[in-house]
Amino acid sequence: MQIGNSSLLQEMQALTREISPQMGIEANPLRQVNNTAGTDFGDLLVNALGNVNQLQGTASNLATRLEMGDTTVTLSDTVIAREKASVAFEATVQVRNKLVEAYKEIMSMPV
């Protein structure tokens, strides 16, 4: 039995539609950072890095407040913020690796 990409994607979307109303999860968790029509790649990169930096700052702030005994901060909020920051940072590292790889490939092309 072979599962194609499109059938797997359709299955995942069907499961998401079934789960979303029951669990209170938004149907489309992806969000667009900015309107990319006519936006410079450098600006998009700066915005993305700023977003990662903000997530890391928020996670650090929550961790500090939790350690200091702030009762308004829960452990689960702190762990979730840390994981969001970690995932965002890992994604940024992967994008950087791909950019460096593409640069090296372009530079090794004969002129």
TrEMBL record:
Top-level taxon of the source organism: Bacteria
PANTHER family of this UniProt entry?
FLAGELLAR HOOK-BASAL BODY COMPLEX PROTEIN FLIE (PTHR34653:SF1), PTHR34653
- Family named by the database record: Belongs to the FliE family.
The protein's name in its UniProt record? Flagellar hook-basal body complex protein FliE
- Kindly give the InterPro entries that the UniProt entry links to this protein: FliE
Task: Give the encoding gene's name.
Answer: fliE
Q: Which residues form a coiled coil?
A: none
Any matching Pfam family: FliE
A GO cellular-component term linked to this record = bacterial-type flagellum basal body
Could you list this entry's UniProt keywords, alphabetically sorted: Bacterial flagellum, Cell projection, Cilium, Flagellum
| Chief site of localization | other
A single Gene Ontology molecular function, please? cytoskeletal motor activity
Give compartment(s). Bacterial flagellum basal body
Q: HAMAP family, from UniProt?
A: FliE
Give a GO biological-process term. Answer: bacterial-type flagellum-dependent cell motility
Query: Does the record bear Chaperone in its keywords?
Result: no
